[in-house]
Amino acid sequence: NPRPAAIILINGGVKLAAQGAETVPSLEVLTAAGVEILVCGTCLDYYGLKESLAVGTVSNMYTITEKLLQAQRVITVP
Question: Which of 10, 26, 29, 31 lies 20 to 30 Å from 2, alpha-carbon distance?
Answer without folding.
Answer: 10
